[in-house]
Structures are given as structure tokens and as C-alpha cells.
Amino acid sequence: MTEPSGGNTDKPRRPVVVPAVALVTFTAVGITALLGGLNEAPEQPDPLSEGAVLDQGLYSTKFVGSRVKIEPAQNEWDEEKRFVELVFNVTNNSDETLLVGLPPEKVEQAYTSTFFAGSLVKIDPAFPGEDAGPFAYALSKGGETRQLHPGVPTEVILRYKLQKGQQPPAKISLDVASYEFASQFNNNVEAWRMISKEVGQKHLPEIKARVTMSVKKGDSA
């Protein structure tokens, strides 16, 4: 008598071997899918430090460094003042005189600014206190100014006042945006505008670079 065509069903089956590389690939793809897809991971901004030069489109900026500046008391009723200063060398690449400006209070407020300091969209750590600042100005032959003239490299100071007993941070980190010459959001007229993306009801600036500067201590005014 012949055996059934199905053979002996009690015969042990040989295990299927899956290459380890395939398992790793499958796992990686699965995790990536859970995180939102292969092409949706957010790009990290370029990490820079003091001395770096960044092309911001509208500005060319050298991040000179950061320091503690001490202003001695002017009389017996006055008090010594201490500031953390961030120093930049900025060239206005446009054909018009622009303002130094101030950093935005909130990130979502930054995209309308063409001021230089408006591109410093996040500063970490923050400096508490109503009189802490920020204060910003440029230095010229005539003293302090708030203007940046076309094509002229200009030293810019951004400063924060330290409160009594407050220690300066060891480092300061800046999230820096950039600009493009393009049509405006509400018309076809080309002009300089901050590069941003629409997220819900907000326009959030794209971070061109994250700059970390060590704070040097002990400079007197």
C-alpha cells in the first residue's frame, strides 16, 4: 500500500533561519515608521561656537563671544552693575539702513522682524528681572547707535543685567534664524523676510544654527 501524497505529518519541521541583518533592518524600519516615517525626522540646526561666521542672508554675522561687563558705582549712592554681554560683528547685506532691534519675546513673534537681533529667536538661559533687559546697540565712531548701514561691518552688543547676587551662566546658547529675498506672504512684492514655516495658526522661524558661547568673567567697563 502506498503512503498518502501528504507524507508523514509527524515528521519534525526544519526551523526557518532569518539573517540577523534582516531582523535589524526590519526593527529599524518599524521604529522609524512609529516615529513618523523615513523622511519626517526634524533637521537639527548647525552647531556653532564663538568665532563662527554665519550667512543669514540679510546679515553676515560673526559670533565674537560673550563676557561679563562690570560698571562701577558712580557715587556713594550708586551700586555696581554687572551685565552679561553677547558680542557680534554684523554686516548688513541689503541696500537699506536697518535697525539692530531686540530679540523677540516669543518665538512665534519673530517671523515679521527684519532686525538683526530679531533673528536671535531663542536665548538660553533666560535672564529674570524687570530691569534685566535685553538691551541692544551697535558701536560706531560717534558712540552708540541703533543703525546698521549697508555693507559696513559693525560691532553689536546685546546685554542683560544680572540681579544682585546672581551668578552669570557658564555658557549661553542662541537659536538663530536667517532671511531670504522672496515674495511676501500677502503679495507678490519681493523683499527680505525671515525663513519660517506655518505650523497651525503660527509662523515659526526655521533655526539656521544653534550657537553656544562660553561666558568670560571679570571685564570692567
TrEMBL record:
Top-level taxon of the source organism: Bacteria
Keyword line: Membrane, Transmembrane, Transmembrane helix
Residue intervals passing through the bilayer: 16-38
Protein name in the entry: DUF4352 domain-containing protein
Organism: Nonomuraea monospora
